[in-house]
Amino acid sequence: MATLLSLVVVFAFAPAGNWQMTDKYTVRFAGGGEVGGIFKTMKGSIVFDEQNLAASNFDLSIDVASINTGNGLMNTHAKSAEWFEAAKYPVIRFTSKKIVKNGVAYQVTGDMEIHGVKKELTLPFSFQNKGATGIFSGTFTINRSDFHIGKPGGDVEENIKLDISVPVVKK
Amino acid sequence: MLKRLLLLGIVSGVLAGIVALIYQKVYSSSVGADFSAIAKPVGIMISNIVGCLIAAVGYWILSKWLKGKTEIVFNFIFMILSFASMLPAFAAKLPLDVASPELFPGLVIPMHFFPALAWFTLEPLFIKNTD
């Protein structure tokens, strides 16, 4: 009886819209010309309810070492001290603080931590709700110099375009 | 002379191709990285044969000019070109769904020397007292 009561309590207070990321997510980046690639590994938790944005939140982390530019030398270079310094800062982390509706899409404000630098950013995203499944997607740019990534100038543009798609299933 | 050189080109190209395919198999199984979708067996075979046929034509052209010093000059050029041809392998940008691109040069760079090695191995059987 006590167990049953506990279960009822747990489910009653569980946040609505708990989503589990599938392994079909993509995190692409492009920095001009030949510069571009993906991060292969991302994990985190997604609590999202279109009817209750105040209770929604994202906590995502990307494994820096999973970067793949398609070229071995560029991968090694990207993980080096000059760029992401993967050994010292192994993850890129985004923790949301606030999610608001923006037309048919949304905006999430939160702390982005890259290369040991934490900065508050507001990022646009959309959500396709398909009932038990859904897809979060967002395209935005990040100024790499804000996070002390690489030297200014050179072949890599200052503004790095990120294109993220995260298919999810309801927990 | 040209006929024998072209035959040498084909045979050494086939030998280099076979060695390259064996090397690809051994490399893939030992490091666990499969690049067969990029370095396709047919492509490996054709590029080795074409490379050795070009070498055959090159040898023939050099022999017209250099007479007695053809072999030493040809071997030197063949090795320099083999060495130079491996450099683009470092710059190759593979499809993003291919894992561990840093292992790709380890596969293809040795392959760039197989045509020259096969040529040098078989050359005495095809070219005798030409200079």
The main sheet of chain A orders its strands as 1-4-5-7-8-9-10-11
Radius of gyration of chain A: 18 Å
Could you describe the largest sheet of chain A, including whether it forms a barrel? 8 strands, antiparallel, barrel
Q: What would you report as the Rg of chain B, rounded to the nearest angstrom?
A: 16 Å
Percentage of residues assigned to helices of chain B: over 70%
Number of domains of chain B: 1
Query: How many separate helices of chain A?
Result: 2
Tally of individual domains of chain A:
1
Which secondary-structure class do the elements of chain B indicate?
Answer: mainly alpha
Query: What coarse outline of chain A follows from CA principal-axis ratios?
Result: globular
Q: What's the order of the H and E elements of chain B? A: HHHHHH
* CATH architecture label of chain A: Beta Barrel
CATH fold field value of chain A? Lipocalin
Mean pLDDT of chain B: 91
Q: Which percent band covers the strand fraction of chain B?
A: under 5%
Total helical elements of chain B: 6
Name the pair of protein chains with the most residues at their interface, and give those residue counts: A-B, 14 and 15 residues
* Arithmetic mean of pLDDT of chain A: 88
The end-to-end span of chain A amounts to: 25 Å
The major pleated sheet of chain B works out as:
none
Q: Please, what is the oligomeric state?
A: heterodimer
Brief summary:
The complex is a heterodimer of chains A (171) and B (131). Chain A is mainly beta. Chain A has helices at residues 2-13, 72-79; strands spanning 18-21, 26-30, 36-39, 42-47, 57-63, 67-68, 91-102, 105-114, 117-129, 133-143, 159-170.
Descriptive account of the structure:
The complex is a heterodimer of chains A (171) and B (131). By secondary structure, chain A is mainly β. Chain A has a single domain, classed as Lipid/polyisoprenoid-binding, YceI-like (Lipocalin, Beta Barrel). Chain A has helices at residues 2-13, 72-79; strands spanning 18-21, 26-30, 36-39, 42-47, 57-63, 67-68, 91-102, 105-114, 117-129, 133-143, 159-170. Chain A has an 8-stranded antiparallel β-barrel with strand order 1-4-5-7-8-9-10-11. The two termini of chain A are 25 Å apart. Chain B is built from 6 helices and no strands. Classes of the chains: A mainly beta (171), B mainly alpha (131). The interface between A and B is medium-sized, with 14 and 15 residues.
